[in-house]
Amino acid sequence: MAVISILSGKGGVGKTTITSNIATAIANEFKRKVIILDTNVTSSHIRLHFGMHEEMKNTLKDVIRDEDMLEEATYSSEMTGVNIVPSPESLKGLDLDKLRNLASHLAASEYNYVIIDSAPGFRENTENVIRASDKIVIVTNPYLPDVSDSLKLMELVEKNRKEAIVVVNKVRGKKYEMTEAQIKKMLDIKDFVKIPEDEKVPESISHGVPVTVFAKGSKVSMALKKLAGQLIGEEYKPSLADRVKWFFGA
Ligand SMILES: Nc1ncnc2c1ncn2[C@@H]1O[C@H](COP(=O)(O)OP(=O)(O)O)[C@@H](O)[C@H]1O
Ligand SMILES: [Mg+2]
Hints:
single chain; 250 residues; Rossmann fold; 8-stranded mixed beta sheet; 40% helix; binds adenosine-5'-diphosphate
């Protein structure tokens, strides 16, 4: 039904964390079929976020070359129900010009949502990822260099006549962070999504379990599930169990 891409101007801001968690929430909370395409060749970590450590023989490169390879290059996370096509080890021979065809074909067939994790910054493939997307999430952190890099990315998104949702991740509410008003002014946006910083995130990654499963009732999980709902046009209503966990800070 839709292709959602996760992009950022800078590395380490939380793209892969957001990709794995919105995919998990869309599959678990909203019961839709989800596939992640990992286009981040240089640090392809998405599978580690799902605790998949085995070597993956087939990759996105195979599927781009031949769509019949999809099944062989799709690895399912049993714990979450999310499907993953890993990225190849090198860019060589990876023709992301064809990403748009592949992604829209997948979104029109067996999968309800295709989520693309991407490499940071502005590379030759950034524009291919943008063109392949129906919705774009630009991830940043609440600091001036990160937000100004997002601005450049927003210009590229606009040039391609697409719209982006801005997600400010790892918010701690410290004095030295940019304020909400400053972020909105700099990016010329009315709103953005705020995700708090929480130690549960690195802890969950070390266990290979997305935080939305690892610490279901934590504030960071609630915010990620709400974002997932917003992206697919559904309202996230925490279950009673989640609310009880949240009450106890789990
Ligand atoms: N909301 C958060 N709270 C705390 N740590 C976070 C949060 N989001 C991401 N991180 C941490 O930041 C680091 C980079 O996250 P990652 O998702 O790999 O970023 P990217 O894909 O943009 O490079 C990881 O160590 C992760 O644990
Ligand atoms: Mg990443």
